[in-house]
Specification:
Shape: globular
Family: Belongs to the complex I 24 kDa subunit family.
Number of strands: 5
InterPro entries: NuoE-like (IPR002023), NuoE_dom (IPR042128), NuoE_N (IPR041921), Thioredoxin-like_sf (IPR036249)
Protein name: NAD(P)H-dependent oxidoreductase subunit E
Keywords: 2Fe-2S, Iron, Iron-sulfur, Metal-binding
Structural class: alpha/beta
Radius of gyration: 21 Å
Number of helices: 8
Cofactor: [2Fe-2S] cluster
């Protein structure tokens, strides 16, 4: 699993990120998020502001983004919160990266449904490309993380890469997706099973078949 400890607080870290502040576009988004909450409750916006800060760091570094300690301190100051409270949120939720990551953060689900459907093969695919869990690849493209269930059990195994989910994967299908990303292309997100659209049965409907044509009332047929 991902290391939830913040990166060491070094002089180099302070020199790079000590002057961080939202740019004009992200400040507008941050203020809009704060405005959703009643007066005096601005601290409730800590999660969206951490996400915005991570995204701005990502744009500045051409990566998926992470949260250096000075950036966390900036968000705390923006919301008039103790730094430790913001750090607690950032280190608890896996959507926030506590260490530098690559341009593409490859999060492979290793929980039981995905494991039974072949997630071990997906890890092998990543390994063959030089990915190591919790590390940035030598070319700066990839960071591999094993994560817990992300709620796509019906279309397992699945991988989240940055903001997109890729489901019904095989090692070959994952290779195709990674090849496309490496070329700067944007592969189709969602299920990779031909003919499947979301999480409907892969081999056609086997129940409630009359619902395909109209809103059929089955209650009179219940025993």
């Amino acid at each position: 699993m991902a290391d939830r400890n913040p990166a060491p607080d070094t002089p180099e870290l302070r020199e790079r990120w000590g002057g961080f502040e939202f740019n004009e576009a992200y400040r507008a988004k941050a203020d809009k998020a704060i405005a959703r909450y009643p007066e005096g409750r601005q601290r409730s916006a800590v999660m969206p502001l951490l996400d915005l800060a991570q995204r701005q760091v990502g744009e500045e570094t051409d990566t998926q983004g992470w949260l250096p300690l000075p950036v966390i301190e900036y968000v705390a100051d923006y919301l008039d919160m103790p730094v430790i409270r913001v750090l607690e949120v950032a280190s608890f939720y896996f959507m926030y990266n506590m260490k530098p990551v690559g341009k593409y953060h490859v999060q492979v689900c290793g929980t039981t449904p995905c494991m039974l459907r072949g997630s071990d093969g997906l890890f092998e695919t990543c390994k063959k490309r030089g990915m190591k869990k919790g590390e940035v690849s030598e070319d700066g493209l990839w960071t591999l993380t094993e994560v817990e269930c992300m709620g796509n059990c019906a279309t397992a195994p699945m991988v989240q890469i940055n903001d997109d989910n890729y489901e019904d994967l095989t090692p070959e299908r994952l290779d195709t997706i990674l090849d496309a990303l490496a070329k700067g292309e944007q592969p189709k997100a969602g299920t990779q099973e031909p003919g499947r659209h979301t999480s409907e049965p892969a081999n056609a409907l086997s129940s409630l078949e009359k619902m395909t044509e109209e809103n059929h009332d089955y209650r009179g047929e219940w025993s």
